[in-house]
Amino acid sequence: MAVGGRSATPEVIWARPERAGRGPRPAYSRADIAAAAVRIADADGLDAVSMRRVAAEIGCGTMSLYNYVPRKEDLYELMVDAVSAEYDLSGEPSGDWRAEMIALGRRARALMHRHPWLPGLMSPVYGFSPNVLRYLEYCLDCLEGLDAPPGTKLELVAMVNGMVTTYVTHELATAERARSLPWSQEQEDATRIAYLGRELATGKYPRMARAFAEGAGPVDPDGAFERMLERVVNSFT
């Protein structure tokens, strides 16, 4: 039994026909609904995405929206699929699987910065939509030259995506915290570095002192990202 278009049993939104074989053409497409939800999330964050607000954005009633998207989780899945279409998968892989995976990691980072809400939805639950499946198929095509079972190749893709998601989540959280500070980020950094310097000077943390001495200087987020990404990819050699 369904209530407001919502099934009482598990279903996948992609297995549900977008329109019935007969009857009038739906007033809205899934692409329209996904685009509206993405606009809201890009502007105001994922918490701002609600069935009521998406319905208002496209100009329909909230209960009518449930006829197109039975659950909010389905709406999230539409959103992930919509932005996954931004990956350019038109070219043929170069044959250098390491370079290809590093390039895909860079593209994933850029995608998450364009849509800061995306890391919060990076879950296998939303991982099998049409555009995501095309992305995974492309990744496996890029990995043709890697002598490993298909399952191991998928693990590499998951490791790269997991590393990128974690890194971008940290970047976004750091930027958000900086915006909320009543002083400048430079003042905050200077105060914390001075405290750390005093603690390391006590001699209680010799290994940490050596590590920071070798890595003295401003943090380079792009350089750190590249090094981490290369280590993940090269771990499969």
Topology, please?
Blueprint: H1 30-44, H2 51-58, H3 62-65, H4 72-84, H5 97-114, H6 130-142, H7 150-180, H8 185-200, H9 206-214, H10 221-234
Helix pairs in contact: 1-2, 1-4, 4-6, 5-7, 5-10, 7-10
Short description:
The chain has about 240 residues and is mostly helical. Helices cover about 60% and strands about 0% of the residues.
Average pLDDT number: 89
CATH-level-4 superfamily name of the largest domain: Tetracycline Repressor, domain 2
Q: What letter string, H or E per element, gives the SSE order?
A: HHHHHHHHHH
Residues in β-strands, percent: under 5%
Q: Which CATH architecture of the largest domain would you pick? A: Orthogonal Bundle
Low-confidence stretches: none
What would you call the shape? flat
Major β-sheet, in short?
A: none
- Estimated helix fraction: 55-70%
β-strand number: 0
Estimated radius of gyration: 23 Å
When the domains are counted, the total is 2
End-to-end separation: 52 Å
CATH topology of the largest domain: Tetracycline Repressor, domain 2
Count of helical stretches: 10
Structural class: mainly alpha
Classified by CATH, the class of the largest domain is Mainly Alpha
InterPro entries: Homeodomain-like_sf (IPR009057), HTH-type_TetR-like_transc_reg (IPR050109), HTH_TetR (IPR001647), Repressor_TetR_C (IPR004111), Tet_transcr_reg_TetR-rel_C_sf (IPR036271)
GO molecular function: DNA-binding transcription factor activity; transcription cis-regulatory region binding
Keywords: DNA-binding, Transcription, Transcription regulation
Domain HTH tetR-type: 27-87
